Amino acid sequence: MRKYKRWALILSIVILGAALVQANPQSEFLDNGFQALLYHAIRLEETFPSVNPVGMAITEFEKAEREGIHSGEASLMMGLIYQYLDRPGTALGYYLKFAEQHPEEIWVHSFVGDMYAEMGRLDDAKSSYELAIAGASEEEIFAQAYVGLGNAALENGDYAQAKEAFEKALTNAGDYVDSRLGLGKAHFFLEEYAEAIEALEVAQVQAPRSATVSYYLALSYAAEGLDEQAEHAFARYDELQATN
Predict the structure, then answer these.
(1) N or C: at which end does the chain have fewer Cβ atoms within 10 angstroms?
(2) Angle at Cα 203 formed by Cα 15 and Cα 175, nearest 5°?
(3) CA-CA distances (angstroms) from residue 75 to 19, 60, 109?
(4) What gap in Å lies between CA 174 and CA 166, rounded to an integer?
(5) What is the pLDDT confidence band of residue 28, given thresholds at 50, 70 and 90?
(6) 134 within a domain of the structure (yes/no)
């Protein structure tokens, strides 16, 4: 699941980078940074090991940040890159800088919450997610904020609260696999095994190579007395653990 999330994140970076370049065509540094990320997306460094596209992107976005005019956009891109590099503390600093410069972009607090959660600061994460949700208009739905609240509740053992948060995320983004995985886990810990199986079977279709989904599905099958299905799910989990 971790590998899937990393590639989903780099795809988001590339898409967002394209949008920023279109919105700011006069920014040479943003454009250069985005081009470097495209090189990384196509794995240029595997063909030319001496090339470091991510490092090149960081250098260009740092220049854009110092340029001043587009410092907010550059900070956002830096935050995304450092999140991709599993450096939540550094990413957090850039996200907070972007939030300060663009208070109208309330959605960024979902990203802030994710970084706090990665650092184990669950109270701060919860506050950030709640800020994102409270500040959203009727047209804006931040499913990730609800997922973040749900994950924080799971960590704290508040399983009913977690279930409620994941259900809200699914209401607003029904194909969001993290929502279904979280909901399945919440049902499992609440000993609602049939409901857990229902959610996790859909999650498995959405993310067939997720070892975490297979693990909780196996546990739910076993708890429900479905021994054959549990055995198959545990075997699938072991296979994914060995290959992912």
Answers:
(1) C
(2) 45
(3) 15, 11, 14
(4) 10
(5) confident
(6) no
